[in-house]
Amino acid sequence: MTRRSADQQVAPPAIAAGTVSDVLLSADFLETLPDAIVAVDGKGAILQVNSQVEELFGYSRSQLIGKRIEILVPERFRGEHTAHRDGFASHPKTRRMGAGLELYGRRRNGSEFPVEISLSPVSIDGGMIVLSAIRDVTDRKRIEQELRRAHEELTQRTAEQIGEYRTRLASIIDSSEDAILTKTLDGTITSWNRGAERIYGYTAEEVIGKNIRMLVPDDRPDEIPEILRKVARGERIEHYESVRVTKDGRRLNVSISVSPLRDANSEILGASAIARDITEQRRAEDQLRQGQKMEAIGRLAGGVAHDFNNVLGIINACAEFLRDRIDPASEPATYVENIKKATDRAASLTRQLLAFSRRQVVKPLILDLNDRLKDITKLLRPLMGDDVEILVVPRSDSAIVEADPGQLDQIVMNLAVNARDAMPKGGRFILETDTVEFDEHFAEQHRPLKPGKYVMLAVSDSGTGMDKATLSRIFEPFFTTKEPGKGTGLGLSTVYGIAQQSGGHIWVYSEPGRGTTFKVYLPSAAHKITSSPSPEAEAIVPKRLAKILLVEDDEVMRSLTRKVLQEQGYSVIEANNGKSALEWAEANPGQIDLLLTDVVMPSVSGPELAERLSRSHPGLKVVYMSGYTGELMEASERLKHGILLEKPFTRTALLNTLHQTLG
């Protein structure tokens, strides 16, 4: 089908079972979003809310569901709100048309407060759902009023009064969760509040006197000059969405409002800016839209396969009638046989489409995946060729699943075909199995995965790998990077569909030139053939004041890992790549107890980083993190300085590994 890239993790869309609307209207999904979220239908009826809505408006979920959205809007603003919603619903193709609407909300007790609302459409069967992300902007409005009042009153105050007023104003500004800063018309930063420090990572001392361009990515060179030109003309910029870069290299989605700053004579001296981090909101929207796309493709694929099967049935029946009525030794009999073979090949394609759309009829059995792989391996050797080494590595005595044996064969064979294409000069093809248990914390961070026991099937190759653009599309039916006529583009979509149909999940790790690992997780069925053992208690890891250098180029992965470590009392230093880690170590020659690093990173890899740091930090402990399996990494990386922790890992696995490594 296609080849695959990054020691990054590519998860399937957040749709494991049911439709997009099932997932969207689950309280669990809405709780992952940072703002108060209200889901309404096209007529304005509330379908679901999250707990932030309950806290913000004072209603319980049961009091809101089924009511009209106007219950949360002051009566004098209901006409304006309805006009916004109706206009938005009539333009479903306009993404986030409702971003940054400033209206008022009404609490259950009748009090009113200013809100900012972003609207996002979600197409479902028979209509559309609109997600309303609501944020209380009372503090921001208060600060804006204070700033305007300051401009009006400063000219009428004494020097002492001005000093006192500025002190009070600075205290108000510092209390804001948003980033508030000022700059001159050439972009030089002149003030920086604590919200800006929290969002961007820089202290005021680090940025005041420097140009605001330091926060802007290199791919947006004209953005700041254009904003400053508008400010110089006296224009205000409201809720402008852009991207900014933090001190540690992370890219943030932000909503920015910029206003002119004037002196006593109303001359424009510079600009004040208020920025809000909306990264999590945008990430959730993108995940939902990807799920929508995959569901829509699945429906289309299933519909096409169903209709096409009807056509194939007619062709096949006619071919059989002809075959029975002509001489088997005649020339026409050859043509009839060719028709039969062609219909069989077409039927195979429709079966793959149905697997992707989760409509294929399955006959699940309780079986041991380890035993199944022994039989499949016999088929793999002639497929892979003599120049490919095939390894089967069972990490547990048994791997019991409830699945269709034929579908398991399809998973392995489709991935094997891709691996063979990715290794034109030979290499290693590795099948690994293991049993794992995902806890509540892990499942919460990897929705829609549910906590419980799973059987992992890891399929790895040492081939060419994939880039990010290819990775983003690998599960789409008919997407292929092969030459015309050399691939159907259905191999990986079939694997994806089977995993979903079996109640499982699939992740991919890849990078150009580094090979690929697919990890398929299927629910364990061991409890169906034997009494369930008592669950293992989560390991208790003693808190200790060890200093850990965490190096991970995936910002979400790095953030989650840092949080787990800090909760256990570890002191954590973060770096987004090996080069940054070396620069930090050089500038801070103090002791590091342990290096926790990704393996595959740009410029300086994890093993190279460990080797260089061990020279200046004798006795440094090292734990590597990688989505690639240990069997594959041993062939391509030098992991002599530490041990490997495979992604995705649970909090317990991470903490136990660190505790054991630290001794």
Give a written overview of the molecule.
By secondary structure, the chain is α+β, with helices and mostly antiparallel strands. The chain folds into five domains: 33-136, PAS domain (Beta-Lactamase, 2-Layer Sandwich), CATH 3.30.450.20; 140-277, Beta-Lactamase; 289-344; 365-528, Heat Shock Protein 90, CATH 3.30.565.10; 547-662, Rossmann fold (3-Layer(aba) Sandwich), CATH 3.40.50. The strands form five sheets. It has a five-stranded antiparallel β-sheet, sandwiched between helices. It has a five-stranded antiparallel β-sheet with strand order 7-6-10-9-8, with helices on both faces. A five-stranded mixed β-sheet has the order 12-14-15-17-16. The relative contact order is 0.10.
Give the overall silhouette. globular
Q: Based on the structure given, which CATH architecture of the largest domain is correct?
A: 2-Layer Sandwich
- The number of domains: 5
* Category by helix and strand content: alpha+beta
The average pLDDT is: 77
What level of helicity do the residues show?
A: 40-55%
Please tally the helical runs, counting DSSP H or I stretches of 4 or more residues. Answer: 22
Looking at CATH, the homologous superfamily of the largest domain is Histidine kinase-like ATPase, C-terminal domain
Question: Using only CA atoms, what is the Rg?
Answer: 29 Å
- Assign the CATH class of the largest domain: Alpha Beta
Total DSSP E strands: 22
Residue windows where pLDDT falls under 50 for at least 5 positions: 1-20, 92-98, 531-537
Q: Hey, roughly how much beta strand do the residues contain?
A: 15-25%
Distance linking N and C termini: 46 Å
